[in-house]
Amino acid sequence: MVNVTVFGAGREVGRSGFEVKGEDTKLLLDYGVLIKEDRPVLPLSTSPKDLNGIIITHAHLDHSGSAPMLYVSGTPPVYMTNMTRQLTDILIRDLLHLSAYYIPFEALELKTMIDKCTEIRENGARIGRAEVEFHNSGHIPGSVNVLVNLEGKGIWYSGDINTIDTALLNRARIDLPELDMAIIESTYATVEHAPRDENEKRLIEVVNDVVEGGGLALIPAFSVGRSQELLCVLQRHGFKYDIAIDGMSRTATRMVASRPEELRDPALLKKAMSRIKWVAGDKDRKKIVNKPGVVIASSGMLSGGASIYYMEKAKNRSRDCVILVSFQVPGTPGRTLLDEGLYGPPGELRKVKCRTEWINFSSHCGRSNLMEIVRSFKGNPKILCVHGEAASCMEFAERIKEETGHDAYAPAIGNSFTL
Asked: Contact, 217 vs 211, CB < 8 A?
């Protein structure tokens, strides 16, 4: 028998973690954090001593951020792509810098984990008694989805997945054998994304309008993936005004560009990088915030990072615009701004004067694309709908049952399934 237990991302977006356990093999698929009111919330705990391997599907903190905790009392093998290893290192270092008081590990454990990393390769890996395959997920540079074969059972984990081409990355291509279980994300299971070219055109319209009106267009963006895609979009559409990049997005952009084999059009990103302003400190920020242009700054939900500096200025100026370009987790400043037009510290929220736009450059599958993946499944797998708000996971599970006849669940954290 094989048991699969939900350690995180059950009816929530964040702290992904799934234990796959056979008779004498135990794997973890991701082990992330959920940042809630500036405090990281961890997945369920497990002993690292009998852990055969941790597989990190990509570098985003909601998939990687808790993994160093397992190196406080052990040294389990960890599997990542080369790109994910580099990006995970810088993102978790930043997490430690911002939230060290609440984090149950230190930089030493992170270093141990990075040093123990086995690079994921196309031919897969044998981990304990499990045969594991990895395939491009099209989500961010270095991202993979995972097929585990253990004790005659086939288990597929989507991680975060995108099956459309973007300005930055090639799409994921799904071609799976018969499965016994699929663990699939539900982030946008109830949302139909607008066509990508429409979103790109809308972005260009908005930034041109703002800059030509004398304003600053602030784009808070995830440092990994989204920031680089936005640079490519602006370059591809011939945006002619000033562009600056700030915060962790600077380091991540240089790292992503160093692995051209990960990218759909590396020359496009390189050309974009050659013309942008790389913000070097407060002196640069003071200049940028007071003249028309675009600034791309981490973090994507206004929950920290360089974007906060620009937001403090933009919130009081009607000519400026904040353009949110990603999913905004409930409770984050970005979500509050989007839903209520309010911004500020807890208890001191104020109406903003600046314009606010949401243009969803999602790197996740939308409703139709997720169902297309589900309909491609061979065999009769149990399907776990995870990594989505509760309503999204539950509605997705119901739709799968109605339209395909598969057993589908929206599991809570701690739920366990036997194959």
From this structure: yes
